[in-house]
Amino acid sequence: MSKIVVTGSLHYDIMLQAHHRPEKGETVMGTDCAYKFGGKGGNQALSAARAGAEVSFIGAVGDDDQGKFLLSQLNHAGVDTQRVAVLDSVPSGMSVAILDAENDYGAVVVSNANNAIDPAQFTVVSAWQNSVMLLLQNEVPESVNVCAAAQAKLRGVTVCLNAAPAREISAEMRAAVDLLVVNAVEARDLSGLKVADLASACLAAESLSRQFPAVVVTAGEYGVAWCEQGQSCQSLAAEKVVLVSTHGAGDCFMGVLAAALLRQHSLAEAVTLANQAAAEHVSRQPI
């Protein structure tokens, strides 16, 4: 069976709720606290597995209770964790996110073990058995992504980069990417074009498609635009839902998108399914 290889971050998330996020020097009294599985890599792996894809993960956690929790959540979802290293030299990655009264959030991430992923793991032939897609994000060092992408290209594996959070993409990385997925902020930073509606999302997608074979720009409340190199941009309006929380919506989108592409859906079909899943995700409390 064809599978998706995901490499990226695994974070033990502390989720706080408060009326608003603190300003500099301000102490805010919170209203709730929860401890959750997180990291863009981990979240996208879970999302793809829950959407029916066979998924394996390459990464690292610390030899601590947080690492055990992260591995248990991946295993429970059916994600293959044979290539997740357990390190005794550094703690597991973690983040603290604050959800405010407007149902938006901000977060602080400490990478820890995610910065110690061994690139040699990507050279192991068995790690790529039956793989047809590599899913990457920007919460690990680019050197890790470059190594993973290079090994994927040697094996004819499609490379999908969710360039989040935004950072400069090296020429080596650009040359390896088959599908780039970015949100409005990341699209602006990479294309120089402000994304404020679907029309401008299309302009950014078209601009970026001159550098990448296919591009998807998620534009939040406006919807999503996508463009394959040499073709006209297409777009889809956001579904109307009652917003509860945006936390993890992008990772939900990515996992469903990758799973749909694995099932041989066209990019348009995959984006439509991912858009629907993200709309459902933001209309319920984070799990």
Give a structural overview:
- The chain is globular, with a radius of gyration of 18 Å.
- It has helices spanning 40-50, 65-76, 142-154, 171-176, 184-191, 198-208, 249-262, 267-282, and strands at 3-7, 11-18, 30-38, 54-62, 80-87, 93-99, 105-110, 131-137, 158-162, 179-183, 214-218, 223-228, 234-237.
- The chain contains eight helices and 13 strands.
- The two termini are 29 Å apart.
- A nine-stranded mixed beta sheet has the order 5-4-1-8-9-10-11-12-13, sandwiched between helices.
- A hairpin with a 5-residue loop joins strand 12 (223-228) and strand 13 (234-237).
- It is α/β, with parallel strands linked by helices and 287 residues long.
Task: Itemize the secondary structure elements and their pairings.
Layout: E1 3-7, E2 11-18, E3 30-38, H1 40-50, E4 54-62, H2 65-76, E5 80-87, E6 93-99, E7 105-110, E8 131-137, H3 142-154, E9 158-162, H4 171-176, E10 179-183, H5 184-191, H6 198-208, E11 214-218, E12 223-228, E13 234-237, H7 249-262, H8 267-282
Summarize the structure.
The chain is of the alpha/beta class. 32% of the residues lie in helices and 29% in strands. The protein contains eight helices and 13 strands.
In terms of structural class, how would the helical and strand content be classed?
alpha/beta
The biggest beta sheet is recorded as: 9 strands, mixed
Uncertain segments are none
How many β strands by DSSP?
Answer: 13
Shape field:
globular
Q: Give the DSSP E fraction (strand runs of 2 or more residues).
A: 25-35%
* Count of DSSP-assigned helices: 8
Distance between the termini: 29 Å
Radius of gyration: 18 Å
Mean pLDDT level = 93
SSE string = EEEHEHEEEEHEHEHHEEEHH
Strand order of the largest sheet: 5-4-1-8-9-10-11-12-13
Fraction of residues in helices? 25-40%
